[in-house]
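Notes from hallway chat w/ T.B., transcribed later so I don't forget. T.B. wanted the structure written out for a chain they're using in a teaching module, and asked if we could keep both sequence and structure tokens in one place. Agreed to drop them here.
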Amino acid sequence: MTGGTLIVSRAVNLFPEIKKFFSGLGFRDVTVTAAEKDGLYSLIDELEPVRLMMDCKFYDLATPYMMGQLLKRFPKQYTAVLAGDNYPLSQAICFFGHGVKSYACLWDGMEEYKKGLRIIRDGEKYVSPTLKLLLENPANRPRVDKNQNITKRHKECLLMLCCGYKTASIGEKLHISKSTVENHLQCLYNIFHANSREEMIAIAWRLDLVTKDDLQFYDDRTLNFPLPDWAEEKINLNRRTA
């Protein structure tokens, strides 16, 4: 399919309609996929598309970060992001910090949306008028360090965050100061464009940065708490069947 178009979407039941819509706008050799991460990278290697367009919610709030990871691997790939609804503008701005070429939003109206898609089809840069207004203000431009990596300490703090530990407790467990923990967490928020610990936890779960086997929702203090009857019964059952 060298020279064609690859569209990344989770709307599997709409793949035929999506292909028909973009083919009708003049996109050639359209392929629609729900492949992600390594599966998506393998498909890009195989198809060598001229342009790749991804639904802004494909990786939920982590899509800007994941598009950055994709462009690290395929730095010359023309990439565009498509928004079918009110994706947060604070997140949409971050796509350009990661090197995304274009952004088209259906909320600008169907006529403008199709205009943007035709520009994307021709390989030129297009930015949704709504988003363009924000980008014109230097204060709103994304500050993205593409070379910033997640360290072992970052991962430790993230895991404990996902396990429900407060900042001070993370510091105690890792034998570092509370301010150091806050710095590590803020670094993670910056890398993934998360605005809160709740968003960071959701992103960690979405990207499999932590797994359910990693999670332990307790700390040392809970060992002295009396358990409810059903929990005691479950523990005793597990002991008998072990």
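Follow-up for T.B.: The mean pLDDT is 88. Might be a good example for the class.
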